């Protein structure tokens, strides 16, 4: 255990150094920073390489480990309920913050370029629901369609519960071995984190430029402030409410995962690291982590929900369209509902923003203004998404251990 603590402590220190040096390198030598993107991209690809086999095998083994459909139903309802609770609290925090600060009310929108916003694909609730069902599981596996993989893995696991023990045993042994192998590979990839973070941060800074950040500093400050408040106060309070453990000590132990999420801007790519860290450093039982974390990587979107709430209210202020209390309640409900459909990939929430803006009747073209800093804020909100996953996983683990 001591060796593991030292390993993660060293990695964390190097990651922080990588973030600082990457920001400096991207600011001073932007041309070189843009050319070395391949290092960061390769790092993310290595992580994504592990996701599909890890998610499928982990969920399958976790469901068989539960032993019964009743246990799965009880644990699943608690998990979904907690994820909805934390997402609702994130949206509520964002709406309150925007009603306090009123940013965007006196910002000129003259000269905006609207081309970026108009390229987003149309979206509907019907297509979102049907997209959860894999018509070809092999295509879903090859394309990395996370929700489809999770749905099939759950159904496959539930069906296997009705098999005889002799039929279940070879399946459990196979997928347990696959899961262990993926986690071992994740350990190797974690060693590359400082280099990957340096490359990704430097590229983002070089591509976006410091000027863009300064131009939207009020908007960025509110988004980041809401994310930090939810991560440092709301989520710890939820963990403390449902358990008796020290939330800040736990978050300190598993901080490797949110840092990784910040650098990759992808909940899915962070999943192998989250599973390894939460078991080794967070004291979570592997069976519980294998069920809750893969589910959270797709349906838990606290950061995305908070970001969408701030962004939509900011656009409403820019457009001079005041939203009533009822409109803001509708916004909150819509964001919580749609957050489940957001893919665990960078910037997928922009599609959700189009849906919300169209529903409320706000001009989609105003998205062009905030798209410029979306990548930077995507890193922040993904880190919060993963932090929420870690909190819910710990709560479920504590409940299961009490049983």
> Major sheet: size, sense and barrel closure?
none
How far from one another are the termini?
Answer: 26 Å
Radius of gyration: 21 Å
User: Which CATH class is shown?
Assistant: Mainly Alpha
CATH third-tier fold name? Proton glutamate symport protein
Number of helices: 20
Which regions contain 5 or more consecutive residues with pLDDT less than 50?
A: 109-121
CATH second-level architecture? Orthogonal Bundle
Give the fraction of residues assigned to helices.
over 70%
Classify the secondary structure makeup into a structural class. Answer: mainly alpha
What share of the residues does DSSP label as strand, in percent? under 5%
CATH superfamily: Sodium:dicarboxylate symporter
Shape: globular
Summarize the structure.
By secondary structure, this protein is an all-alpha fold. 80% of the residues lie in helices and 0% in strands.
Q: What characteristics describe this protein?
A:
403 residues; mainly alpha; globular
Protein described:
This is Cation:dicarboxylase symporter family transporter. It is found in: Cell membrane. The chain crosses the membrane at residues 12-30, 42-69, 81-102, 145-165, 185-205, 217-239, 290-316, 328-357. It is a multi-pass membrane protein. With 403 residues, the chain is mostly helical. The chain has a single domain (2-402), classed as Sodium:dicarboxylate symporter (Proton glutamate symport protein). It contains 20 helices and no strands. The chain has helices at residues 2-28, 30-35, 37-66, 69-101, 125-130, 137-143, 146-161, 165-190, 193-208, 210-215, 217-242, 247-253, 256-264, 267-280, 286-299, 302-319, 325-339, 349-360, 367-371, 374-402. Helix 4 (69-101) crosses helix 20 and helix 13 (256-264) packs antiparallel against helix 20 (374-402). The radius of gyration is 21 Å and the shape is globular. It starts with a helix and ends with a helix.
């Amino acid at each position: 255990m001591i060796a593991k603590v030292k390993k993660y402590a060293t990695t964390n220190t190097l990651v922080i150094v990588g973030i600082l040096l990457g920001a400096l390198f991207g600011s001073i030598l932007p041309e070189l920073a843009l050319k070395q993107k391949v290092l960061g991209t390769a790092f993310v690809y290595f992580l994504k390489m592990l996701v599909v086999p890890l998610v499928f095998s982990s969920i399958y083994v976790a469901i068989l480990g539960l032993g019964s459909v009743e246990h799965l139903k009880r644990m699943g309802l608690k998990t979904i309920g907690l994820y909805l609770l934390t997402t609702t609290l994130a949206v509520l925090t964002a709406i309150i913050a925007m009603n306090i600060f009123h940013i965007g009310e006196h910002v000129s929108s003259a000269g905006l370029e609207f081309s970026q916003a108009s390229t987003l694909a149309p979206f509907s609730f019907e297509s979102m629901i049907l997209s959860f069902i894999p018509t070809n599981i092999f295509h879903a596996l090859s394309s990395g369609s996370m929700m489809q993989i999770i749905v099939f893995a759950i159904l496959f696991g539930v069906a296997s519960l009705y098999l005889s023990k002799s039929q279940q045993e070879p399946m459990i042994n196979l997928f347990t071995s696959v899961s262990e192998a993926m986690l071992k590979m994740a350990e190797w990839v974690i060693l590359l984190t400082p280099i990957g973070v340096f490359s990704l941060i430097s590229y983002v800074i070089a591509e976006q430029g410091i000027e863009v950040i300064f131009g939207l500093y009020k908007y960025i400050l509110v988004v980041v402030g809401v994310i930090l408040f939810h991560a440092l106060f709301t989520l710890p309070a939820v963990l403390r409410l449902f358990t008796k453990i020290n939330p800040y000590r736990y978050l300190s132990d598993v901080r490797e995962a949110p840092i990784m999420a910040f650098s990759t801007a992808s909940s899915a790519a962070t999943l192998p690291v989250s599973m390894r860290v939460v078991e080794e450093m967070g004291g979570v039982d592997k069976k519980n982590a294998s069920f809750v974390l893969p589910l959270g990587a797709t349906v838990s979107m606290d950061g995305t929900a908070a970001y969408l709430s701030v962004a939509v209210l900011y656009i409403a202020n820019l457009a001079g369209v005041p939203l009533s209390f009822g409109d803001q309640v509708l916004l909150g409900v819509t964001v919580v509902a749609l957050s489940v459909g957001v893919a665990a990939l960078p910037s997928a929430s922009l599609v959700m923003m189009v849906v919300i803006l169209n529903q409320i009747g706000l001009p989609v073209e105003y998205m062009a203004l905030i798209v410029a800093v979306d990548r930077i804020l995507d890193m922040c909100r993904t880190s919060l998404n993963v932090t929420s996953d870690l909190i819910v996983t710990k709560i479920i683990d504590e409940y299961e251990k009490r049983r």
